Amino acid sequence: MGDIDTGNGGDTGGTGSAGEDAAGESLLTVVIALVANALIAIAKTAAAAITGSASMVAEAAHSWADTGNEILLVIAERRSRKPADARHPLGFGKDAYIWSMFAAFGLFTAGSVVSIQHGITELIDPEPASDFGVAYVVLAISFVLEAISFVRAYRQAHAAARERSLHTIEHVAKSSNPTLRAVFAEDSAALIGLVLAFLGVLLHQVTGSPVYDALGSILVGVLLGVVAVVLIGRNRAFLLGEAIDDESRDGVLAELLARSEVERVTFLHIEYTGPDTVFVIAAVDLEGDRGEADVAAELHALEDALEQHRQVGRALLTLSDPASPPLLPRPRSLS
User: Fold this and answer.
1) What is the pLDDT of residues 138-183, one digit of tens each?
2) What are the mean pLDDT values of the chain's consecutive 10-residue runs (335 residues total)?
């Protein structure tokens, strides 16, 4: 059976070595982001204390939120890789979405809300800043460290997107891997936030008005809020049981119908049970007339064949209702 395209741009899952390699890649991406954000958070906190800049305070809150989030994402990676057991026959893959959801809420509360609140406070009761050079140095160092983390996440996402002929951003949006999406989104927001903070500090220094610094803090908070809402929405979709895209489903249907023992398929549902892992449910009509024992053995053999695929965590097949209409793959577009 060929590769099942599950909308992950070639991400691999299941129990094979390919799935283990993908999980290891994601964990390394998160660890690199964790170390970078922890160093950045310490530097920004010191700079905020020295300069009194509202933008630097917002950036410090941003980085501490990111650091906490990366810890949650490490937990997500480790817990989602636990093997299935009798009480959890579909495994623990969705734990990744639960912990990633916690991380997204943390980004919203500890990053977005704090930054916006501090910016509004500075607008109402502005305080002058000083030692702008310290802020510039810390922002520059932070940009370099964030860029290192971002490049790591980008390379992982780009390699997977290229396998499926997707744009990298499109792959990140569709991917069932929440840790990769979170690191990619947070690092992107961090780089944009650093530019906003730099402009806020620069305009404060040039004009002497702390309003620009406060506005920089508010804009950073709004940016983090948008990213957090997007991440919360994607994790919610997978926790609810998001199915694979129609094109991929048609590909699986075509491969089932291509098997000599399958006469027709009347029901097919494939949904994510974790990062890069799916649960396949199908109702099939087998060729010929067979006894009950032979039918059971044939269905079990088909399930085993499906579960050999690197992205199929579990397959469940049953017999079709004779009155149910057959499913057929949709004609492929020529475009």
Assistant:
1) 999 999 998 998 998 999 899 888 887 889 999 999 889 998 899 8
2) 42 44 74 88 90 84 86 88 87 92 88 88 81 89 91 90 87 90 91 91 88 89 92 94 86 88 93 91 87 86 88 91 88 56
Query: Mutual orientation of helices 17-51 and 132-163 as an angle, nearest 10°?
Result: 160
State how far the Cα of 296 lies from the Cα of 303, in Å rounded to an integer: 11
Compute CA distances 220 → 114, 188, 304, whole Å.
Answer: 10, 12, 50
Residue 89, SS3 per DSSP: coil
Rounded CA-CA distance 202/189 in Å is: 20
Distance set, CA 116 to CA 38, 63, 138, 329 (Å): 22, 15, 21, 50
Q: What are the residues whose beta carbons fall under 8 Å from the beta carbon of 90, sequence distance 6 or more?
A: 84, 273, 279, 313, 314
How many alpha carbons fall within 13 Å on the CB side of residue 179? 36
Residue 271 tokens, joined: 């949904």
- Report the C-alpha gap between 4 and 45 in whole angstroms: 47
Q: How confident is the model at residue 119, as a pLDDT? A: 87
DSSP string covering 199-220: HHHHHHHHH--THHHHHHHHHH
Provide the pLDDT for residue 126: 81
Q: How far apart are CA 151 and CA 156, in angstroms?
A: 9
In angstroms, the CA 205 to CA 201 distance is 6
Residues 127, 235 contacting (CB under 8 angstroms):
no
